[in-house]
Design brief:
The chain has 255 residues and is mainly beta. It has 2 domains: 4-33 and 115-242, Trypsin-like serine proteases (Thrombin, subunit H, Beta Barrel); 42-111 and 244-253, Thrombin, subunit H (Beta Barrel), CATH 2.40.10.10. The chain is 4% helix and 48% strand. The chain contains 1 helix and 17 strands. The protein has one helix spanning 245-253; strands at 4-7, 20-22, 43-46, 49-55, 58-61, 70-72, 75-79, 85-86, 99-104, 124-140, 143-170, 173-181, 191-193, 201-206, 209-221, 229-231, 235-240. Strands 3, 4, 5, 6, 7, 8 and 9 form a 7-stranded antiparallel beta sheet that branches. Strand 3 (43-46) and strand 4 (49-55) form a beta hairpin. It starts with a strand and ends with a helix.
Amino acid sequence: MRHHVCFALLLLSLPAICALVIDSDAGDTNARAPAQVPGWANVGTRAGLTAIYLGNGWVITARHVGAGDVVLGGVSHRALPESTVQLGGSKAPPLPDLIVFRIEPRPALPSLRIRPTPLGVGEPVVLIGAGRDRGARTTWNGQSGWSWGPHSLLRWGTNRVSAVGVDVGTGEIVTRAFVMRFDPGGTRHEAQAAVGDSGGAVFIPRKGRFELAGVLIAIASYPGQPPETALYGNLTTAADLSIYQPALAALLRER
């Protein structure tokens, strides 16, 4: 079956959500900081969606999420007016679905390491997003999976990179992305993003440490797939931050 790729926008007919559907559903395990993975505290909410605190007062999220106040660890941080920067903005369109902006007060959190090189197919990743959990089992058109659950909170899950160098979007907004496929038992805590998960984080282990490799921007579902479902074979896409690592590193060094 072919997939339909769409930006993970917040639909007006749905509640404010930004979800990770976790195949293992290991109780509250996935709602606590994952062992040895820094960055959990750096992921927060932005108007019901997700944003990531990079450090030095800077936040990154999807462009279609937009700039605004960010809540980290239950504390609200005000977005500084006119601080928004469109990544890739020095070039002609198409532009990526990524922005950065500054917040205050600055959180007492460490700066994140940004992945400097593109990912490879098969590499393991950790996804973090705030939102709906896993609901009841469901089957549609021969594809099994899960309905979205009723609860929303920060969660983490795992997956593997299934494709790289994929362009997501049309017109003036096109983002170079990597893709993760939702497979039964693919990883221990196999995760699929859902509509509204925009701005979430993708971390990857590298040389004994974890780096921020991507920002969740879109999902791919089957044509005609029922709403509020995550079916095996669905895809999660994330903007490849290695392209912008030099620019982001410079922001984190600014005084």
